[in-house]
Amino acid sequence: MINRQLLSTSFYFYWLFCIIMKQTIQHIKKTLDPFYPATEIEGFIAIVFQYYLGYNATQMILNSDKTIEFEVENRIESVIERLKTGEPIQYILGETTFYDLRFEVNPSVLIPRFETEELVDGILKKHGNNKLKFLDIGTGSGAIAIAIKKNNPLAEVYACDISIEALKTAQKNADLNQVEVHFFHHDVLSDKPLPISGFDLIVSNPPYVCEKEKAAMNRNVLEHEPHLALFVPNNDPLRFYRAITLMATQHLSKNGELWFEINEAYGPEVADISTTHGFDAIIIKDINGKDRIVRGIFLH
Ligand code: GLN
Q1: Which of 249, 145, 245, 259 is nearest to 202 (CA)?
Q2: Residue 246: enclosing H or E segment and its boundaries?
Q3: Tens of pLDDT along 103-142?
Q4: Whole-angstrom Cα distance, residue 260 to residue 237?
Q5: Are 155 and 145 a contacting pair, CB within 8 Å?
Q6: Is pLDDT at 14 greater than 80 in this prediction?
Q7: Which atom of ligand 1 is closest in space to residue 231's alpha carbon?
Q8: 99 contacts 116 by C-beta, under 8 angstroms
Q9: Whole-angstrom distance, CA of residue 42 vs CA of residue 136
Q10: Which residues, listed in sequence order, are joined to residue 283 by a DSSP beta bridge?
Q11: Which residues line ligand 1 (CB under 6 A)?
């Protein structure tokens, strides 16, 4: 015998808890409105629906009247709660996209930035088909090294970092993207010599944000991203550029190249360090017209 009472009650609860996608989107917008600008919330919505339901922008429109499973709804709710505290969406979901590739990220590595995609793009435009021995210093999540290797399988790619945790994440990312990168531990500010030599190209996106710039930074960066990968002292903002340039003079082949991502405030100063060490240097601007890359060709 079917218990009619029970049946109708469960239908009632199903109807009560059934949430359609449109409502969830409205709920996200309303809840996060006091915390983020509207465009950023739109971005979160796109990322969350892509992550949990695999929807792209068109699929989101096509499915906007569909119901969302209770389980998914619950997960989205916990993402919203964490976003309210300022935690970056990439750390909450544990992944991000860089140069069209998927990367695992966690608070031991910086979330790869758009500017760094421009750095990778500049290198690949020039060396996308060249067989070269390549080193990425301060690799973090492995973004630069892995994106280069994925797009130029002829490259022999090495990458180092001072953080063991970052190196573990970078190795996972190389596996995830099915590329071979030789990772090793190294502190560029130490006197320890680099264990490998004869590179055709050295690239680095070292820490370059001055302590004094903290006041103008977003809370989600300051409170969640690794300071080790971001900050340099006000009285010595170019310490990594000097150390890496000096080291490059000993480990680059003739006409080898040294590519740096830089703080927009120090283009001429970084170029000057390169020139002083025997490089022919140029400054390249990013998409926003800011000095972002210094490229030096080693003339010795
Ligand atoms: N571009 C990054 C930022 O503004 C900094 C990266 C770095 O220090 N290398 O947060």
Answers
A1: 259
A2: helix 239-251
A3: 999 999 999 999 999 999 999 999 999 999 999 999 999 9
A4: 14
A5: no
A6: no
A7: 8
A8: no
A9: 34
A10: 294
A11: 113, 115, 205-209, 221, 230
